[in-house]
């Protein structure tokens, strides 16, 4: 049997062993946090780092957010909270949005995590746990104000209001809900959900209130309440697609050119030969495909970029490769080029999403683990 090869060599940016380079700017993430924090005035600006900080790496991102001032972090699942605990200071608050599944309550206290209680069952589980522990336990309570996804219904709140023993041993530290239409500023659901949160909260123990994620922050101070929970905006996604994005882009994705060829009139490109040349063309094959999270739908109207030159994607995106048109790139420039931008200064995450018929959230969280990743440090 042959020896296994040693790890593939990488030499800085060249990273010849990887098909693509993902550059993540920790400085931009910190600056976005600072901007959101300043914008929300007296409200606490938490940081949502679920889904591995939207695919960018919670281990690297969370400490930077903490240094930028974040003291409260949100994740979706218990296991994400357990992993995050090691990367933030012991005083940082970690809230778990999905709350405790039955039997996991002691894992929350063991790892210093606060649950978001979403149902009467989760409240009962947490109450029983507090009784076992023998001291009150902090938690957030989530209310369903109209999205029908997480949280207590109006009827549940009525039951709690009628029997104070149901919240015995639960120290309610936050009452929260989530907006369904915050990216559409004039949607009537926004004001309706806010009014419902305020009214439902009056029947619960007094606690700080929270409603807004990224887009909600941009609905204005009425929506900031006591705490805001941005995720997407920290990572540079636009909070309102109808206006210029005020946030800094945080990622740049460069794909390696593996091969360049010339094709002639009538030649097809890629699976299904869905694209055919009407004349001579130069085609570059890139080492990035849908297995890297570069969504297959993005082929139509999608492109790579070389500085400000748009290089259209031709044919279908394969699992590990994508073909682009480099006919208009001067040969000398092409000879000197090893990588092209898939996400970059001229084509951000939201642009890639638009081409793929999806949202920036999906593009970011899908970005693959096969890339060579580089974290650009914060400016000193
Ligand atoms: C994901 C999530 C957030 C963050 O949302 P963004 O739109 O990414 O800012 C905030 N709150 C809850 C409940 C969430 O599920």
Automatic annotation (TrEMBL):
A Pfam match: Ala_racemase_N
Residues bearing N6-(pyridoxal phosphate)lysine are 50
Any one GO BP annotation for this protein: D-alanine biosynthetic process
Active-site residues, record numbering mapped to chain = 50, 271
User: Alanine racemase C-terminal domain location, by residue?
Assistant: 250-376
Its recorded reaction(s) are: L-alanine = D-alanine
UniProt-listed InterPro entries: Ala_racemase, Ala_racemase/Decarboxylase_C, Ala_racemase_C, Ala_racemase_N, Ala_racemase_pyridoxalP-BS, PLP-binding_barrel
Which cellular component terms (GO) are annotated to the entry? cytosol
- MF-aspect GO terms: alanine racemase activity; pyridoxal phosphate binding
- EC class, as a word, reads isomerase
Q: Any signal peptide, and if so, which residues?
A: none
Q: What is its EC number?
A: 5.1.1.1
Under SMART domains, the record lists: Ala_racemase_C
Residues annotated for substrate binding in this entry: 149, 319
The source's superkingdom equals Bacteria
Transmembrane annotation, as ranges: none
What this protein needs as a cofactor is:
pyridoxal 5'-phosphate
Tell me the SUPFAM superfamilies matching this sequence. Answer: Alanine racemase C-terminal domain-like, PLP-binding barrel
Q: Which sequence ranges form a coiled-coil region, renumbered to this chain?
A: none
What keywords tag this UniProt record?
Answer: Isomerase, Pyridoxal phosphate
Pathway membership, UniProt = Amino-acid biosynthesis; D-alanine biosynthesis; D-alanine from L-alanine: step 1/1
Which family does the UniProt entry place this protein in? Belongs to the alanine racemase family.
Q: Could you tell me what this protein does?
A: Catalyzes the interconversion of L-alanine and D-alanine. May also act on other amino acids.
The name on file for this protein is Alanine racemase
Which organism was this protein described from?
Komagataeibacter melaceti
Q: Which gene encodes it?
A: alr
């Amino acid at each position: 049997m042959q020896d296994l090869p040693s790890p593939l060599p990488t030499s800085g940016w060249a990273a010849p062993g990887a098909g693509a380079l993902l550059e993540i700017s920790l400085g931009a993430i910190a600056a976005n946090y600072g901007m959101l924090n300043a914008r929300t005035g007296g409200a606490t600006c938490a940081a949502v780092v679920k889904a591995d900080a939207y695919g960018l790496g919670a281990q690297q991102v969370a400490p930077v957010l903490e240094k930028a001032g974040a003291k409260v972090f949100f994740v979706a699942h218990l296991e994400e909270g357990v992993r995050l605990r090691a990367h933030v200071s012991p005083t940082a608050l970690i809230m778990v949005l999905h709350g405790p599944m039955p039997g996991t309550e002691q894992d929350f206290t063991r790892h210093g995590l606060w649950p978001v209680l979403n149902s009467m069952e989760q409240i009962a589980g947490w109450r029983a746990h507090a009784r076992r522990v023998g001291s009150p336990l902090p938690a957030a309570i989530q209310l369903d104000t109209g999205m029908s996804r997480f949280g207590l219904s109006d009827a549940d709140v009525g039951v709690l209001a009628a029997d104070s023993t149901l919240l015995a041993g639960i120290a309610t530290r936050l009452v929260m809900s989530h907006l369904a239409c915050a990216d559409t500023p004039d949607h009537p659901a926004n004001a309706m959900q806010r009014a419902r949160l305020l009214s439902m909260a009056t029947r619960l123990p007094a606690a700080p209130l929270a409603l807004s994620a990224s887009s909600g922050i941009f609905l204005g101070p009425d929506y900031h309440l006591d705490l805001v929970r941005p995720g997407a905006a920290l990572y540079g996604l636009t909070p309102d697609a109808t206006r210029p994005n005020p946030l800094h882009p945080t990622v740049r994705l460069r794909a390696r050119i593996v091969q360049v060829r010339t094709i002639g009139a009538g030649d097809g490109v890629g699976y299904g030969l869905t694209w055919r040349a009407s004349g001579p063309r130069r085609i570059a094959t890139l080492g990035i495909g849908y297995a890297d999270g570069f969504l297959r739908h993005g082929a139509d109207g999608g492109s790579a970029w070389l500085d400000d030159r748009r290089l259209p994607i031709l044919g279908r995106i394969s699992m590990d490769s994508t073909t682009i048109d480099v006919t208009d790139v001067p040969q000398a420039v092409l000879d000197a080029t090893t990588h092209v931008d898939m996400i970059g200064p001229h084509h951000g995450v939201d642009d890639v999403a638009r081409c793929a018929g999806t949202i920036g959230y999906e593009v970011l969280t899908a970005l693959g683990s096969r890339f060579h990743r580089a974290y650009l440090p914060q400016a000193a």
